[in-house]
Design brief:
Helices cover 71% and strands 0% of the residues. The two termini are 52 Å apart. About 9% of the residues have low confidence. InterPro entries: TPR-like_helical_dom_sf. Pfam families: TPR_14 (PF13428).
Amino acid sequence: MTGWFLAFGLAAIAFLALLLIGRIPRSTREISAAALLLGLAGYAWQGNPGLAGAPRLAKDAAGEKFDENLAERRRGLAERFGPAAQWMMLSDGLARQGKTKEAANVLLSGLRAAPDDANLWLGLGNALIAHADGVVSPGADFAYRRALALDPEGPAPRYFYGLALVRNGQLQAARDLWKPLADSAPAGSQVKAELDASIARIDAMLAAGAPPSQ
């Protein structure tokens, strides 16, 4: 019953505010009251006024699913100035708001206009990973493989596909992608140092008996 009391109380307060603060003319008071009653009727029809409350913690999807550091790294490796940049910027903006499905759909729109753009396929793979909470779905796997096929020598597809594979326990597959990339990276570069360290950790895990793939 608490829901009903709150609903009627709010309706009464709203009507009094219209009378005392809004100073609505007498001719419109009946219409205003009818509108409030219509709102109460809608609440009774669509709502659940007798349902007990169940407070929940809001989930900050944007904060959990969008990684600014990874996005910056991707821009450094791939599409910062390329034709895919506008689509990627729009997709990133949606992902920051936690709208991961919409972020992926934007990239699909870009791919309809440029189906052979490796950066868009790479971005789609990353977006689908974010939408699936880190899981390499069949769609994400296809997107990464398409990016690799279109840009086999590019660092970005191999780096991010390998990263997704590592996070899903597919260590050997990730190593196979990263080792040639590390060997070809400029000596002393941050990317080479990071890849060498990651490969060393993978080798240690494989030597300790970790499964090569899942």
